[in-house]
Design a protein that fits this description.
eight-stranded parallel β-barrel; single chain; 33 strands; 36 helices; alpha/beta; binds magnesium ion; binds adenosine-5'-diphosphate; elongated; D-amino Acid Aminotransferase, Chain A, domain 1; Dna Ligase, domain 1; 5 domains; Glucose Oxidase, domain 1
Length: 874
């Protein structure tokens, strides 16, 4: 098979074969974009290379030589030609973009002779030797494994000797000597010389790029981003263009829209008189792209024009690398730009409005992680706090953590449960595990397109970059504000950063709730038009209900009434009710609880006016409302008289109620059956609340949900009791128009298996997937999560924690069986889930797939659930 493609031979849809970069270069070439010519070796060749145990086989090498010959022919320059040498870059390019994770070598083709030739033909010795020393350093690192800091140290020493502050101030002789010193360095540390044979350079470089697919940082990046390990990298060989030839040259990176806000128009950075990675590496802090319009207006206009063309072709915001050689613009890479959460929504909405994409596509493109970030918090600006410094708002969201100054510490502390902010002068791909572990990232150097910024945005991590007011001393583990007497921040000190504004504050700051933007609302409206699943909320209080409704809840899918009894003033009444030894005493306590419960329900019904409110009757075992035995005993010792008698009664009850396995004990409907007066009180409170609300003009849609049913007769009995109450307390008209519907939770496997009979008594099913998961696995969540479950997942005995992601194979099957059986008995039976899975993407997809009517989740997950439900439907 063909394994080398000239740019002219490739196509945009050949990403699998040519990698993202190769396919992009081919597509740009086809579109007439000014791209230096070159060719790409396929990912397949990379896989062959790995399979052959790291041998670049002759036929492939011959193919490469052939493509090189064509390249030489076209440009009239030859690799290794002493008079006018062709120089190339050898670039990595995986199928899925992995910015900076693999290796690239620039200026290949220089040796002692061609460097001389380049100097002669360009008349610029300084330039020639700048290129040469760069090649030796890159080649030394990438191919021969010499550490980068060794080269840097030599460079610093050279600068010091020359009395130079910046690279720019070094002379041709400085670079020449550095090139020599670098060669000696390579020989010393790699045990072999930097190759003077340019074909050997090329061959070794191609092999090294192949190998870079498997370097540790690339592997970490892939595992974090779940990129399949088998595909390999393509290798692009491309004629060099030079941004380091003088003041009318430069290099940079632009986005076609602002990657933080999404605002249309070029956004990015460049450096005059610089080459390649200078911008990304954060060596010098670059200038904003707008100033290119002043420095080189023609190139800026061209860049803008091609940016638009590429955006049009790809239907999305692009991230473009460019180089300007003597005023002429060349594009070197284009790819879909990574963006922050806010920008992602803004861009998607704008593209729909500009007619470039359909609203389905906009919804499909929403990344749920982004949404989460957007719904994350920022620093509360009203809280008075001295800003320590302000950097670039590189990735939005606020983060609080302890300052750490290296990736390993970040990882270790975070594993120990300490939130950390990773503080670095700049990050490199080797820091990736630290970035991953940190709550947020702070760098003192580098721009919006620096490594730290790009990676943080991709991960949805808050980041403040290029905060030059800060002096970060990674070795001494401290950071200080330049030129200020203010106390330095040391390792372990608290820091708050806001990647949305760029603020850095010492200490821990209060955070503000997220703002729901117009774009988010628009995307949510589109999602609502596209989804089939309804999204309800798990809410126990009117405040929660109102918040849920604002976030788009279509009802309350689960109100856990036990939460209403844990307030201190109610708990005592509840305890009195539980301890009551006579019917009268119990009735008296219940009579006290009833109006409280009624008020709760009224609040909920009012908040959800017109939407269903599902009230689950008391579920936990009664002893959960009682103080612990030891506490009781202690109180008893100190008490006397009536109080003592009361405590004694409580203790007796507590002993009587104790269970060996409370999770499997007298709870849920079992409680309702053993203590009918409790459920009766709750049903009465709901009927009275419904009547009172209806009186006030509220559109009441109340539902009662019976928990933990395992046998149809249980539900039959309890339903009859609820209906009797309704008969008694619900006004006739209301009973006709808005009857209180009675349904059940399916959370015991037996209920799922006998769903057909249960459905005869149920107006709806709500799968309580937390309990259903516990009971299906026969494992208690509280005991499992802290202990063996994590180990199970680590050892791949389970693919994931089933309490987070619904287990489709087991629990899901029960849900499927029960839904089908229930609907067979009662066509149109409403069914949904109300466990924590209701707010989890994969579980939502599953619910959609099996045709449930709704998911119910905690209020703040609702926007996410709305989008996920729409994506499931697309
Ligand atoms: P990465 O995938 O890490 O971005 P690239 O292959 O894109 O690596 O190259 C790194 C840098 O070198 C980029 O700034 C790129 O624009 C520059 N570069 C690559 N090839 C050339 C070339 N032929 N001429 C000039 N600059 C180049
Ligand atoms: Mg690149
Ligand atoms: Mg339950």
């Amino acid at each position: 098979a063909k394994r080398v493609y000239a740019f002219e031979e490739g196509r945009a849809d050949m990403k699998e074969l040519l990698g993202g970069k190769g396919a992009g270069l081919a597509a740009m070439t086809a579109a007439g974009v000014p791209v230096p010519p070159g060719f790409t070796v396929t990912t397949e060749a990379c896989r062959d290379y790995a399979l052959s145990g790291g041998m670049l086989e002759e036929p492939l090498w011959a193919e490469i030589r052939e493509a090189l010959a064509v390249l030489e022919e076209r440009g009239g320059q030859r690799l290794g030609d002493r008079a006018d040498p062709l120089l190339v870059s050898v670039r990595s390019g995986a199928v899925v973009s992995m910015p900076g994770m693999m290796d690239t070598i620039l200026n290949l083709g220089l040796n002692d002779e061609t460097a001389e030739g380049l100097a002669a033909i360009t008349g610029d010795e300084r330039f020639a030797y700048d290129c040469y020393r760069r090649l030796i350093a890159m080649f030394g690192q990438v191919v021969l494994g010499v550490e980068g800091w060794r080269f840097e140290r030599l460079l610093e020493a050279r600068k010091e000797a020359a009395g130079a502050e910046t690279d720019q101030q070094l002379s041709a002789d400085d670079w020449r000597e550095l090139a020599l010193a670098y060669q000696q360095l390579v020989l010393r540390h790699a045990g072999r010389p930097f190759p003077q044979d340019v074909l050997e350079q090329l061959r070794l470089a191609v092999e090294a790029v192949f190998r870079s697919w498997d370097n540790p940082r690339a592997r970490v990046y892939r595992s974090v981003n779940r990129i399949d390990g088998a595909s390999g990298t393509a290798v692009t060989v491309q004629r060099m263009v030079f941004g380091n030839k003088g003041a009318d040259c430069g290099t940079g990176v632009v986005f076609t829209r602002d990657p933080s806000t999404g605002e249309p128009g070029l956004y990015g950075e460049f450096l005059l008189n610089a080459q390649g990675e200078d911008v990304v590496a954060g060596v010098r802090t670059p200038q904003p792209i707008a100033s290119l319009a002043e420095a080189l207006p023609h190139a800026h206009a061209e860049l803008d024009r091609w940016g638009r063309t590429l955006e049009e072709r790809y239907g999305d915001m692009q991230d473009i690398e460019f180089t300007i050689e003597r005023g002429r613009l060349f594009l070197l890479q284009t790819r879909t730009g990574k963006r922050g959460a806010q920008a992602a929504l803004r861009i998607a909405v704008d593209l729909v409005r500009e007619g470039r994409i359909a609203r389905e596509e906009a919804v499909r493109r929403v990344e749920l992680a982004h949404l989460e970030q957007l719904l994350h918090r920022g620093i509360d600006e009203s809280a008075a706090a001295e800003t320590l410094a302000k950097g670039l708002p590189a990735s939005p969201g606020a983060a609080i953590g302890r300052a750490v100054f290296d990736a390993d510490t970040a990882e270790r502390w975070s594993r120990d449960g300490q939130p950390v902010i990773l503080v670095r002068p700049e990050t490199t791909p080797d820091d990736i595990h630290g970035v991953l572990a940190a709550e947020g990232i702070l760098t003192s150097r580098g721009g919006m397109t620096s490594h730290a910024a790009v990676v943080a945005r991709g991960m949805g991590k808050p980041a403040v970059c290029g905060c030059e007011a800060l002096e970060v001393d990674a070795e001494a583990k401290r950071l200080a504000v330049r030129g200020s007497g203010a106390e330095a921040i040391a390792e372990g000190d608290w820091l708050t950063i806001d990647g949305g504004t760029g603020r850095v504050i010492a200490g821990r700051m209060p955070l503000r709730e997220p703002a729901v933007t117009e774009e988010l609302l628009q995307v949510l409206r589109w999602a609502d038009e596209l989804r089939l699943l309804e999204v309800h909320a798990n809410a126990d209080t009117p405040e929660d209900a109102r918040a849920a409704r604002r976030l788009g809840a279509q009802g309350i899918g689960l109100c856990r009434t036990e939460h209403m009894f844990f307030a201190p003033e109610r708990l005592v009444v509840m305890q009195r009710m539980i301890a009551a030894e006579t019917d009268e005493a119990r009735e008296a306590a219940l009579a006290e609880l009833r109006p409280m419960q009624q008020a709760d329900f009224e609040g909920l019904l009012e908040a959800m006016d017109g939407l269903p409110v599902t009230i689950r009757l008391l579920d936990p075992p009664l002893h959960e409302f009682l103080p612990g035995r030891e506490e009781l005993q202690r109180k008893l010792e100190a008490a006397a008289g009536a109080e003592r008698a009361e405590l004694e009664a409580l203790l007796r009850r507590s002993d009587a109620l104790r269970e060996a396995n409370p999770m499997l004990g007298q709870r849920g409907c079992r409680l309702g059956i053993m203590h009918p007066e409790i459920y009766r009180m709750q049903a009465e409170a709901l009927c009275l609340a419904a009547a009172a609300c209806a009186e006030r003009g509220v559109d009441v849609r109340a539902e009662i949900m019976i928990p933990l049913v395992g046998e149809a007769a249980e539900l039959g009995l309890l339903r009859a009791e609820v209906e009797a109450v309704a008969e008694r307390l619900l006004p006739e008209a209301l009973r006709r128009e808005r009857p209180i519907r009675v349904g059940t939770m399916i959370e015991v496997p037996r209920a799922a298996l006998t769903a057909r009979r249960i459905a005869e008594h149920a107006d709806f099913f709500s799968f309580g997937t937390n309990d259903l998961t516990q009971m299906t696995y026969g494992c208690s969540r509280d005991d499992a999560e802290g202990k063996f479950l994590a180990r199970y997942v680590e050892r791949k005995l389970l693919p994931f924690n089933p309490f987070q992601v619904l287990d489709e194979e087991g629990v899901g099957q029960l849900i499927r069986i029960a839904t089908e059986a229930g609907r067979a008995a009662r066509p149109g039976l409403k069914a949904g889930i109300c466990g924590e899975h209701g707010g989890e993407r994969d579980s939502i997809f599953f619910c959609h797939e099996i045709g449930l009517d709704y998911v119910s989740c905690s209020p703040y997950r609702i926007p996410m659930a709305r989008i996920a439900a729409a994506q499931a439907a697309l």
